[in-house]
Design goal:
By secondary structure, the chain is α+β, with helices and mostly antiparallel strands. It is 27% helix and 19% strand. The strands form three sheets. Strands 6, 7, 8, 9 and 10 form a five-stranded antiparallel beta sheet that branches.
Length: 258
């Protein structure tokens, strides 16, 4: 349910005063064809809307130039746009991501290395080329950022004299919600690729932990897992199976021969 996904993301990121606009699946070509867009633009101009969270940019317009025009308009009005693309924390891919990755291969890319969803996604071998839809986080020291902007404290009704640690504890409700309690964010892989005659011939994936259970000062630093007790490789293999990709796990490494 897209509305539930948007509401969940908004709530977890401190957006309390929420209005939901639904396009009812109508795929108009122009911005004004999209239900709710007129009200949204009016809210932007009046200053009543400061953040817009939406499924993906196709919810604005199906014409890329019109979408760019809208994002420029939003930026000029100080409005933040947050596209989720099926969910920031989600292993399910929207079709356009797969289409774009495959198009890149068709245009000559030797490998596609995805990053951004904060967790692992499956691997596809397309026309003999690897597509890593997401390798997850590599360094994720979100709990030890040295400085936070003033509006971060304002959003949580905190004094600007609060420490970053106090802010992080408030945001996660003392480590009971958000990133800190989502295990898949804290496990990842590092991909090594061997080329023969200019073509990738073998891939070896090494499991990594970012130490979810460690204290804040240690959390987010990557380490190779010497014995994969967290079953990172098995988990990645399960994500890759829908793409017809088989991972061969040997000596704490997931192998693929192309």
């Amino acid at each position: 349910n897209q509305e539930a996904l948007l509401r969940q993301y908004a709530g977890e990121h401190g957006h309390d005063n929420i209005t939901v606009y639904i396009d009812n699946g109508y795929s108009g070509l122009t911005i004004d064809d999209r239900p709710g867009m007129t009200e949204i633009r009016q809210g932007m101009k009046s200053g009543n809307i400061k953040t817009i969270i939406f499924k993906d940019y196709s919810r604005i317009a199906r014409d890329i130039q019109l979408t760019f025009a809208f994002t420029n308009e939003a930026e000029s009005l100080g409005v933040t746009l947050i596209p989720l693309y099926g969910g920031e924390i989600n292993t399910v891919l929207d079709d356009f991501i797969k289409e774009f990755a495959r198009l890149c291969v068709d245009k000559g890319a030797d490998a596609i290395i995805g990053h951004g969803p904060h967790e692992l996604r499956g691997i596809e071998i397309y026309n003999g080329k690897p597509i890593f839809y997401s390798l997850g986080n590599f360094i994720f020291q979100t709990e030890t950022v040295a400085i936070q902007p003033a509006d971060a404290y304002e959003k949580h009704s905190m004094s600007n004299l609060s420490t970053v640690g106090q802010y992080m504890s408030n945001r996660s409700k003392d480590g009971t919600r958000g990133y800190v309690v989502q295990p898949n964010i804290w496990r990842s892989v590092m991909a090594g690729m061997t080329a023969v005659d200019g073509n990738i011939a073998r891939i070896c994936l090494h499991p990594i932990t970012l130490h979810m259970e460690e204290p804040r000062s240690r959390k987010g630093w990557p380490s190779i897992i010497k014995s994969d007790k967290e079953e990172v490789l098995e988990y990645l293999a399960s994500l890759s199976k829908p793409f017809g990709t088989e991972l061969r796990i040997e000596n704490n490494c997931a192998l693929m021969d192309l």
